[in-house]
Amino acid sequence: MVATRIRPSRLVLAGAAAALLAGASSPAMAGAFGLREQSTTGQGMSFAGMAAGGGDSISGMFWNPAVVNQVATFQSEQHVTGVFPSSKIDVSDATKRNIGAVTGGTGATGDSGDIGQGALLAAGYNAYRISDKVAVGLAVTAPFGLVTDPHDSWGGQVLARSSKVMSVNVSPTLGVTLTDWLSIAGGVQIQYFDIRLRRATGLLPTSPSATLTGDDVGFGFTAGFTVTPAEGTSVGVGFRSAIKHKLEGKLKTPLGDSKIDADVTLPETVSVGVRQAITPELTILGGVEWTNWSRLSTIHVKARNGGATLTSLPFDYEDGWFFSAGAEYAFSPEFTGRAGVGYELSPITNKNRDVRLPDADRWWLSAGGTYNYSDRLSFDLGYSYVFVPGRSKIDVELPAPLPFDFEATSKSNVHIVSASVRYKFGGEPAPVLVTKY
Fold first, then answer.
1. Cβ-based neighbours of 276, under 8 Å, separated by 6 or more
2. Phi, psi at residue 16, to the nearest 5°?
3. 137-to-14, 67, 75, 125, 301 alpha-carbon distances in Å
4. Which residues lie closer than 8 Å to 12 by C-beta, 6 or more apart?
5. Average pLDDT score, the chain
6. CA torsion, ordered 54, 60, 64, 69, to nearest 10 deg
7. Phi/psi of residue 18, each to 5°?
């Protein structure tokens, strides 16, 4: 690092900015830093039609709480998903030359290596029928998160060294069946959000890091309905509200520690699902999701308790969209296969792509199945391959007073494997469901 040319105080403030940016930009599977992997059943068909419910799984509660009304007596299911991303950033020759010129040839100029880090995600759903009209449920999910970890010494280290984002969302739900064709539901979201973000304070391989940590518990709600306009047809619409978090934590730098506040509002989502039986064995599904990522524009990082603004972070995200189509086929009462395809319009574009989130529009290809061991016990498997066609451009302004932009390209793909088990308690054993048309 050329200490006489880059003032530490400026780099400390830039560290705060880049650190908070990391909290909203670790590569994830629902646009920006959202996680869609909340259901093994959905995983096997690119989440097509999940807001409409149907089948034997109640995991559609994540997209639409009204799915709770489809429980017969008492049902519990647990889902575990392994996410295995690969994302590499190649620094441009121009950026490498500029770093070398500023540091006299001693700066870190290498590529990122694989910044993707594997993760296990868990989701659980429980639903109980109180009466023929009323059902209650509880969903425990992780809607936001994942981890990135490039080489500590690389050409983009002043923008990112590591990022860790984690969330836990608990959502109790109350559902009411109004008629034989209409049901509604609503619930509360209680969400814990935690970040730990790190970047270099200079261009040298030995430059120390600035680290930002913060967490908060926020609250929101869910609402939705399902309708069955004709036998064999189900349509569902679900809404997950925005949740405001007032992160409290510390910014640790070589100059000392500072307590900080940062207001971050995580976006709301609207999901629409359609489920249509074609024959007693074949069902087709479709889905559309909209996420209001454009509400994440500028975030202000302040000293604790209403202090001065340390920096402002212009995210300038666009809204996210996800479109999916899939099919299920009951080969026998014991086994149902499924497949699906999805296309995602990312909130990240060439205008706002960052090294901590080399996200772009991407395709989903999925397959899976259900094995009914008995009338009460079932197992699911799901797999998705998610890929960004071609390479994505990265062009980021470096912290002042560095006189050049960071330029690079990235290539990303993800393998996702999911498994679940579900069990139906109490009452008469429910028959294996084969949708009739």
1. 232, 233, 234, 283, 284, 285
2. -60, -45
3. 45, 9, 9, 7, 37
4. 201, 210, 251, 253, 254, 255
5. 89
6. 50
7. -65, -35
Interval 230-256: pLDDT, tens: 999 999 999 999 999 999 999 898 988
- Contact present, 216 and 247 (Cβ < 8 Å): yes
125 burial level (CB within 10 Å; 0-12, 13-18, 19+): buried
Q: How far apart are CA 294 and CA 411, in angstroms?
A: 24
Cα–Cα distance, 261 to 213 (Å, whole number): 10
- Specify the length of the chain in residues: 437
Q: Is residue 116 part of a domain?
A: yes
Which tokens in the block code for residue 252? Answer: 């640790």
pLDDT at 178 over 90: yes
411 backbone dihedrals φ, ψ, rounded to 5°: -135, 125
Query: What b/e string do you get for 296-324 counting C-beta neighbours within 10 Å, with b at 16 or more?
Result: beebebbeeeeeeebbebebebbebbbbb
Q: How far apart are CA 281 and CA 331, in angstroms?
A: 7
Domain-located, residue 213:
yes
With contact defined as beta carbons under 8 Å apart, do 262 and 214 qualify? yes
* Environment class of 152 (CB within 10 Å of its CB; exposed 0-12, middle 13-18, buried 19+): middle
Asked, for residue 291, whether it belongs to a domain, the answer is yes
Q: Is residue 1 part of a domain?
A: no
Host domain of residue 212: 8-425
The radius of gyration computed from the CA coordinates of the chain, to the nearest angstrom, equals: 23
Question: Per-residue confidence at 30, pLDDT binned at 50, 70, 90?
Answer: low
* CATH code for position 47: 2.40.160.60
Residue 390: closest CA among 364, 365, 369, 362: 362
Distance CA 287, CA 326 (A): 9
- Tens of pLDDT, residue by residue over 71-108, are 999 999 999 999 999 999 999 999 999 999 999 999 99
Whole-number Å distance between alpha carbons of 48 and 287: 5
- In the block, tokens 């139906």 appear at 424
pTM: 0.89
How many structural domains compose the chain? 1
Looking at residue 29, what is its pLDDT?
55
Strand partners, 278: none
Residues 47-66: tens digit of each pLDDT: 999 999 988 999 999 999 99
